[in-house]
Amino acid sequence: MSNHPILSVSKLVKTFGKKTAVNAVEFTIHEGEFIGLLGSNGAGKTTIIKAIVGLIKPTSGTVLYNNKNFEANLKESKKLIGVVPQNSNLDRDLTAYENLYLHTLLHNIPVKEREAKISTALDFAELSDYRDKQLKTFSGGMKRRLVIVRALIHDPKIIFLDEPTVGLDPQIRRNLWNLILKINQVKKTAILLTTHYIEEAEKLCNRVMVLDHGDIIMDNTPEKLKHGLGRFVLEIYNEEGITEKYFETQEAALTAQGQCQSESKIRDIALEDVIIQLTGRRVNA
Amino acid sequence: MLNGVQAVLYREVHVFRKKAKKQILASSLSPLLFLIAFGWGFGDRVAVDGLPYILFLIPGLITMSSLNQSYSIAQEINISRFYFHVFDEFLIAPISHIEIIIGEVLYGVFKASISVFLIFGYAFLFGVDLRISASFFIIILMHSFMFSLLAITVSMLIKDHGSQAQVNTFVITPMIFLCGTFFPVDKLPAFFKVIVHCLPLTYSTKVIRASLTGGEINLVYIGIMLIFMCTFFLTALYAVKKVEA
User: Are A37 and A193 in contact (CB under 8 A)?
Assistant: First the structure.
């Protein structure tokens, strides 16, 4: 990671009629950083991504890529970004190769480099054997892998992954995590990942921003976020449901458990506990 | 500048190629039915504007079919916008809106050209002696350009698939039937005559027919077509920008 800011967002606002979807959001992403943007459905995650990649116009605020204004340097800025949207926008009538070739044309990759870049991308996604197969025949996981490597073909400095693993089974999700981590670690590409799977953000990200009702209410490393609350959780099952208590040490949690008359369990603190404390509800609620 | 146009055209033509047989078959059927019903029905027994009806009809069918094909890109853009989200990929890419518009328009022209050659084939089979002038190729290009631009405007402004069908029902279909494709607009009642003269198809039908039957091409009509083309280009540009609002 370096200290060079790839993306700086300042006082970004997006309203739809009277509803404020994004409320004066500010953040900076540096080269090679892996950031998770966590929030419940409707918190404004996708709206932020759409506004910073140019799919919707922000109501106000500034977006800078490489310290240059996005609006004023649209073409140059768009070359720096790769986008993996929530809904796959691959063309199901085209083959894997044709989908990637289309991307090389859109990004004006020199003719001489196109074939090599497509082959590398297919290898990276372990899809070389499916190069000439139409997307119609691909499984959900294969399509996701392809859409992710497509976003990398033009060597962007930052990629936006909008809920890339939603709807996939646990095995495929873990395979995708490996692919995403490889992108960040091997290619040193900065990543902004939106998710409502806390476990995903915890495993992958160096930094997590928590979004609630269009506001970023917390921005820190997963470890620091978690340990602000304690290290152990005592879950007490009573008539009103589950009550959670947080402790810095396991001994303190065990002592509390010993005094407890209801059924209870001690576990390590998770990022989800912090989110619930911050937003008052579960992220995927 | 060219890579965006090339990319959009690459995508559209490759998708078309996969469905070419079905699409060409579907687009060839309706002009054939009109030709059988009206062409054989009236044949050369009826004369319209001093031309045997079948000779009057063929240029009308070319106008209608090329309009249908160039305008049909609206439906395809619509599907790629709302269903496959492929259009988003164009908007995210470092290409301009003008490149997207030109790429889509060229695809519309490509589709329209196929239908034109198909009807030339029918004319040959039906033994119709068309007098094709060089100006026809420029005029048909303008005509297809104009309706491809209208298609882009409509496909960007509508909010869902249903609205697309409404535009077809209330605007495109009446325009096809009233603007001189099957009968001269001069025969219409005064009220309709005013309406059809506000529509671009009336002018393109007249000049396309003249360029295929040895008639005189009215330059004022060409000028009006150019005005419609420029207007639709600006509306298309506005509409694509509006998608990002």
Answer: yes
Q: What is the CA radius of gyration of chain B?
A: 18
Structure tokens that stand for A107 in this block: 């990004």
Residues of B in Cβ contact (< 8 Å) with A87:
85
Asked if residue B104 lies in contact with residue B11, where contact means CB atoms within 8 angstroms, the answer is no
* CB-nearest partner of A89 from B3, B6, B85: B85
Distance of CA B237 to the CA centre of its chain: 19
Query: pLDDT digit string (tens) for B33-45?
Result: 988 888 777 766 7
The answer to whether A103 faces chain B, any CB pair under 8 Å, is yes
| pTM for this prediction | 0.88
Residue B144: which domain range?
2-243
Bridge-based pairing of strands A34-38 and A207-212 is parallel
Q: How far is A89 from chain B (nearest CA, A)?
A: 5
pLDDT in tens, A9-42: 999 999 999 999 999 999 999 999 999 998 888 8
Chain A, residues 72-91, CB within 8 A of chain B, namely 74-76, 78-79, 81, 83, 85, 87-91
Residues of A in contact with B103 (CB under 8 A): none
Q: Does B9 touch chain A (CB under 8 A)?
A: no
Cα–Cα distance measured from residue B149 to residue A56, given in angstroms and rounded to the nearest whole number: 23
Domain count, chain B: 1
- The answer to whether the CB of B136 falls within 8 A of the CB of B144 is no
Q: What is the ipTM of this complex?
A: 0.89
